[in-house]
Specification:
The chain contains 10 helices and 14 strands. The protein is of the alpha/beta class. It has 2 domains: 218 residues, P-loop containing nucleotide triphosphate hydrolases (Rossmann fold); 57 residues, no CATH class.
Length: 294
């Protein structure tokens, strides 16, 4: 299976949310990494066929998804950032309702609802009202509804936002488990969500695709840009103003700074092994990470 994004641009008024995105995606998990406002959600909506690009095209195995219309949507499972749930419905009843909207027969609905509830770990809670579920359980209901039609392309937008660490681990393990023989696109600004499960990472910034590489390749690209420096307390603010400081650790009367810099920030600075947190900070300044719906 091959999903091709060909010079996709999306404009909202004078704002270009996406700028000629061009890439190819095949079977596996792809992490879309970017600060809020980078264009992640806009790209996901276009790939989910709920929004059309202002220009450019998306092709599935060489066929334009706009012309494919419902034949493409039948292959899609979509979990938006904010999924609407009927709070008075039980998990089982809600999923049965969504299954009917997707055109599943009664027999298919019964089988698939039981199957996806088991898959997301909610089988024993199937009779409970969704409104009483925790945030993590609601997100699992969301992924269950996206899987009802056994999609070949699964699109999930910020699936772990607001979840505690335990639920985040559970969720990304679930995505890894269900990624066999399908394309999974995971949009996030939480780097640990994709560190161990992504086949490749797409880095979006200001609506542009600036990197598409494996996590290992991305980290290799900044391996000489992560430094550790030990300084006195009075020097900390100076280094914070001059460099991107990802971590500060107190060691008796000194402070160890983890710094992102293209050049050696201090004569006694030593290189450190980079991680994806470093990668995120290297590409995105703190001021980039502002609330935005693009």
């Amino acid at each position: 299976m091959n999903l091709t994004i060909d010079k996709v641009t999306k404009t909202f008024g004078t704002k270009k949310a996406l700028k000629e995105i061009k890439l190819e995606i095949t079977t596996g998990v792809y992490g879309i990494l970017g600060a809020n406002g980078s264009g992640k959600t806009t790209l996901m909506r276009i790939l989910a066929s709920v929004m059309r690009p202002s220009s450019g095209h998306v092709y599935l195995n060489g066929k334009d998804i706009v012309k494919m219309d419902h034949r493409y949507r039948e292959l899609i499972g979509y979990l938006p950032q904010h999924v609407g749930l009927y709070k008075s419905f039980s998990a089982e009843k809600f999923l049965a309702y969504i299954a009917s909207l997707k055109g599943l027969s009664k027999a298919e609905t019964k089988r698939k609802v039981a199957e996806v509830l088991e898959l997301v770990g909610l089988a024993e809670h199937r009779k409970e009202k969704v409104g009483k579920f925790s945030g993590g359980m609601k997100r699992r209901v969301g992924i269950a509804q996206a899987l009802l039609n056994d999609p070949k392309i699964l699109i999930v937008d910020e699936p772990t936002a607001g979840l505690d660490p335990k639920e985040r681990i559970r969720f990304r393990n679930l995505l890894s488990k269900i990624s066999t023989n399908r394309i999974v696109l995971l949009s996030t600004h939480i780097v640990s969500d994709i560190e161990f499960i992504a086949k490749e990472v797409l880095i979006l910034k200001d609506g542009q695709l600036i990197k598409k590489e494996t996590p290992q390749e991305l980290l290799a690209g900044i391996e000489d840009k992560v430094w550790e420096v030990t300084v006195a307390e009075k020097e900390v603010s100076h280094y914070q103003s001059m460099y991107k400081v990802s971590n500060i650790t107190r060691n008796q009367d000194k402070f160890q700074l983890r710094i992102l810099s293209d050049s050696k920030p201090h004569q006694y600075a030593k290189n450190e092994i980079p991680n994806l947190e470093d990668l995120y900070l290297y590409y995105f300044d703190e001021e980039d990470d502002q609330l935005c719906s693009y």
